[in-house]
Amino acid sequence: MDECIFCKIAKGEIPSTRLFENEKVLAFLDIMPASKGHALVIPKKHYRVLLDMPHEELKEVMEVIQKVAGAVMSTIDGTAGFNVLQSNEEIAGQVIPHVHFHIIPRSEGDNLDFSWEHGKAELEELAKYAELVKKGI
User: Fold this and answer.
1) Hey, where are the domains in the chain?
2) Protein fold of 5-136
3) Which terminus has fewer CB within 10 Å in the chain: N or C?
4) pTM, whole model, 2 decimals?
């Protein structure tokens, strides 16, 4: 994917503040952070959405997410928690079409809001959707 900004970062064609790197995964600081220490973790190989990734590579990415999140929790002053955010497709907020995970450190009073209005589902409705999803698994 010649035009993908994350592919260019992975290849070293665009500078980044790298936190961790191995053959398949790269973690670096976000240049437009939601909070101090906001990091991105990407597979170096281009995958547009999460469903495109092989399970073994996803597992390796998740291991790096856990390492980086632990480091953020233990080193960034005031961090009391973190969000891991991953979006697929533009409708869901994916801006760059390359699988990536945000690790967003959270602190008291940070004014970040990742909440939504909670609905209420009846058991019959839940059963209907459960059957549909189970057929797709």
Assistant:
1) 5-136
2) HIT family, subunit A (3.30.428)
3) C
4) 0.93
